[in-house]
């Protein structure tokens, strides 16, 4: 028997960005929609510097949603 009920995701979430080299978290944020994908690799703050450093090595930071509210 197939369950036809679909559970709607809650709109707000908390997420963590991890360094793929050592899997250590370097940023925790909250948002909605695609906020966790909106970070840019730049030089304005430590988080952006870290993303730029990771991308310069041909890698991508890991993103994990840790809760929805």
Report on the architecture of this protein:
The chain is of the alpha+beta class and 69 residues long. The protein is 16% helix and 32% strand. The chain has one helix and three strands, in the order ββαβ. It has a three-stranded antiparallel sheet with strand order 2-1-3, with no helix packed on it. It is elongated and about 45 Å long. The mean pLDDT is 87.
Features:
69 residues; alpha+beta; three-stranded antiparallel beta sheet; 16% helix; elongated
- Given helix and strand content, the structural type is alpha+beta
Order of helices and strands: EEHE
Strand order of the largest sheet: 2-1-3
Q: What is the terminal separation in angstroms?
A: 30 Å
Major sheet: 3 strands, antiparallel
| Contiguous uncertain segments of 5+ residues | none
Tally of contiguous helical segments: 1
The portion of residues assigned to helices is 10-25%
Average pLDDT over all residues: 87
What percentage of amino acids are in beta strands?
25-35%
Number of strands: 3
Rg, Cα atoms, Å: 15 Å
Shape type = elongated
